[in-house]
Design brief:
The structure is a single chain. The longest helix has 14 residues. It contains three helices and five strands; from the N terminus they run E-E-E-E-E-H-H-H. It has a single domain, classed as Hypothetical Cytosolic Protein, Chain: A (2-Layer Sandwich), CATH 3.30.1230. 32% of the residues lie in helices and 21% in strands. By secondary structure, it is an alpha+beta fold. It has a three-stranded antiparallel β-sheet with strand order 4-3-5, covered by helices on one side. A two-stranded antiparallel sheet has the order 1-2. The radius of gyration is 14 Å and the shape is globular.
């Protein structure tokens, strides 16, 4: 008999800092040079999770979460393209 039920992994949004099931969040990856939408959770690089609403996206930029995660200044336009790509794929 199993002691624990298997549950979906919880991940934290970088915009609102709320933990949610992994399937409810957008996943982007950063490999040191570029951001990519990662819908199948297989890309290499640092995984970055974000809620699917505009409020969390704006908060992530306001709080400079992207710079902190990447440990350098980042290109906002490149991030927005990756977010739009992730939203369109889902």
């Amino acid at each position: 008999m199993r002691r624990h039920q298997t549950t979906e992994p919880m991940r934290r949004c970088i915009g609102c800092y709320h933990s949610r099931p992994q399937s409810e969040l957008l996943r982007l990856t950063y490999n040191g040079s570029a951001f990519k939408a990662d819908t199948d959770i297989r890309n290499e690089g640092r995984g970055i999770y974000l809620c699917r609403n505009d409020e969390c996206i704006q908060k992530s930029f306001k709080r400079k979460a992207w710079n902190r995660i990447c440990r350098s200044a980042v290109n906002t336009e490149e991030i927005m393209r990756a977010i739009e790509s992730a939203l369109n794929e889902n």
